[in-house]
Amino acid sequence: MAGTGSNSTEEALRLTRWAAKAGADAALVVAPYYNKPTQEGFYQHFRVLAEAVDIPICVYNIPGRTGKNIEPETIIRMAELPNITMVKEATGSLDQASQIINATDLTLLSGDDSLTLPLLSIGGRGVISVVGNIVPKDMIALIRAFETGNVDEARRWHHKLFPLCRDMLGLATNPIPIKAAMQMLCRDTGDLRMPLWRLSPAEEAKLRATLVKYGLLKK
Predict the structure, then answer these.
(1) CA distance 22 to 47
(2) What is the average per-residue pLDDT within 41-68?
(3) pLDDT on residue 206
(4) Would you list the DSSP string of 65-123?
(5) Nearest-5° angle of CA 155, CA 150, CA 162?
(6) What angle do CA 72, 73, 78 make, to 5 degrees?
(7) Chain segment 185-197, per-residue pLDDT in tens
(8) Other residues' Cβ atoms within 10 Å of the Cβ of residue 182
(9) What is the DSSP letter of 62?
(10) In whole angstroms, what is the distance from residue 132 CA to residue 170 CA?
(11) Which helix (H) or strand (E) holds 30?
(12) pTM higher than 0.85, yes or no?
């Protein structure tokens, strides 16, 4: 799923068309940021993209980064557009997620690792995960346990993963801590692009302690 969002509809259209031509299975399109569109502006932005390509589009709603929420009524309206098939839900609101699930056939994906199980419990279908970059099997195990009806096992995985989500991702803006963790685990990762900046030595020490506690590193 290629990320093709922009605060410019023209730019998002160019990127989404390029992704479709390149063979992407879907496009992840973040809500236009900085310029804070109206709800009608959000709708028209995604309408233009949906009508221009044949691949599925996932609406990425993360108001903490973009500055404005795509309200559930707007997403419900978007669900009637061709190719709008998914929502990456990162508002932190189970009420908003419930409204979308109740009123549409959209596939709702968690955009917050720690809310994966709560969202599954109300009808979500998975997660676009950050911690999955370092513990993919554990996140998959949580989802599979829930989907096979083993709620106790899913809950166990949730509580195992939760401190990692909280203590690692709470250190700094993503992707700063996940890239640092991958480097500590000797996994290939690109460098941060400015203005993002590496963790301080004290933050790195906290991250290492978190990875040790989870069992990913030895003391």
Answers:
(1) 21
(2) 97
(3) 96
(4) HHSS---HHHHHHHTTSTTEEEEEE-S--HHHHHHHHHH--PEEEESSGGGHHHHHHTT
(5) 15
(6) 90
(7) 999 888 899 999 9
(8) 16
(9) -
(10) 16
(11) strand 27-30
(12) yes
Phi, then psi, of 91 in degrees rounded to 5: -90, -20
- Tens digit of pLDDT for each residue in 126-182? 999 999 999 999 999 999 999 999 999 999 999 999 999 999 999 999 999 999 999
Specify the 3-state DSSP secondary structure of 158.
helix
- The residues annotated as belonging to the active site are 60, 88
The three-class DSSP label of residue 137 is helix
Contacts of residue 89, Cβ cutoff 8 Å, sequence gap at least 6:
61, 96, 97, 100, 108, 109, 110, 111, 119, 124
Distance between terminal CA atoms of the chain?
Answer: 37
CB 120 within 8 A of CB 143: yes
pLDDT tens readout for residues 67-123: 999 999 999 999 999 899 999 999 999 999 999 999 999 999 999 999 999 999 999
Q: How many C-beta atoms surround the C-beta of residue 22 within 10 A? A: 8
Check pLDDT > 90 for residue 219. Answer: no
- How many CA within 13 A on the CB side of residue 215? 4
HSE-up of residue 209 (Cα within 13 Å, Cβ side): 8
Alpha-carbon distance of 56 to 188, in angstroms, equals 29
* Rounded Cα gap, residues 182 and 134, in angstroms: 7
